[in-house]
Each structure stands twice: as C-alpha cells, then as structure tokens.
Write a structure and sequence with these properties.
Layout: E1 2-16, E2 21-34, E3 46-56, E4 62-70
Antiparallel strand pairs: 1-2, 1-3, 3-4
Length: 71
C-alpha cells in the first residue's frame, strides 16, 4: 500500500537474487492511494527485491528497493 501526494507515474520490478528481472509492471498515472498484491506462489523459495519507481509530473524521481524473503 502507498499514498501519494502528487500526480505521477508508478512502476515496479521484481528482481531475483541473481539480479534477473522476473516481473515488471507499469501502473501508469497514480494520484492518492494505491494498493497492489504480488502473488509469489509461482516463484521458487529465495531472496527477491522489489524496486518501486515513482516519477512525478514535476520534481525528482523517487525510488525504493525492498527485500522479500520467500520461504
């Protein structure tokens, strides 16, 4: 879940431990709140990273990388 205070484009990538992109999603223009579930059941156990990229219409691009451990 996320809340945005400005208009912009949202995208994210799911990357495995070998830095291979296993999933990518362009969500398009976002304003206000956003909620997304990523189903991991088809991926093997291991470490993954999700990179979230928010490109506001005006201003600096914001990114975040979050670690996911699938057991």
């Amino acid at each position: 879940k996320a809340r945005f205070n400005e208009l912009g484009n949202l995208s994210f990538q799911l990357v495995d431990a070998k830095s291979a992109i296993v999933f990518t999603q362009e969500e398009g223009t976002i304003l206000s709140s956003y909620d997304k579930d990523i189903l991991m059941e088809n991926y093997p156990s291991g470490i993954f990273y999700i990179k979230v990229i928010f490109k506001p219409n005006y201003g600096i691009i914001k990114t975040g990388v979050f670690k996911i451990v699938k057991l």
